[in-house]
TrEMBL record:
This is Succinyl-CoA:3-ketoacid-CoA transferase. It comes from the Bacteria. One of its GO terms (molecular function) is CoA-transferase activity. InterPro entries: 3-oxoacid_CoA-transf_A, CoA_trans_fam_I, NagB/RpiA_transferase-like. The keyword Transferase applies. The lineage of its organism: Bacteria, Pseudomonadati, Pseudomonadota, Betaproteobacteria, Burkholderiales. PANTHER family: ACETATE COA-TRANSFERASE SUBUNIT ALPHA, KETOACID-COENZYME A TRANSFERASE.
Amino acid sequence: MDKVFANASQALEGIVADGQMIGVGGFGLCGIPEALIAALRDSGVKELTCVSNNAGVDGFGLGQLLNTRQVKKMIASYVGENKEFERQYLNGELELEFTPQGTLAEKLRAGGAGIPAFFTRTGVGTIVADGKEIREFDGDQYVMERSLTPDVSLIKAHIADRSGNLIFRKTARNFNPNVAMAGKITVAEVEKIVEIGELDPDQIHLPGIYVQRIVLNENPEKRIEQRTTRPSKGE
């Protein structure tokens, strides 16, 4: 099956709606589906719950959806680079479910594996465990965490074939595979598309069974979240 769509807007057509849970891959600004996020913004859907490691930066990544007030709730582990996020949260305009980073990854992985919940020691004795079931195993306390299965997942990969088999590039594998597996419908933004059979099966990071739609973005911006420079010699 050829899963390739002409552009990001077409790839989201008919599958995004108000009130959905949207999973978004990436780590910081690394490996985020830039074109798909922009298309989601342009779609005008609102009251979204976004599941992502972080919330982008002001005006870029998921920060665009915060500017347009399309996000009702964020489920994330790190949000420190976004002033608009801070403003909305402190003013009671945005719901936030802080989740430890490893727990968030496992909530997505478990969702993709069909596991509805799991127990972890992370968060026991903190506000993370408030209202959740606590159980003892081998003398230690564990908190029960529910898995996550977004209605739609938007991810970024480096290469795809037309059936959706994906190869990620370096640290872009952070969160993207788990987000893809967890989504009920997954849309992959990629920089290169090859024909079926061209990818070495041993090099495929995510099988195409987890991907329903593909869109090509050959030249993403790949903005740097925090640019650090050194003075040249003699300065």
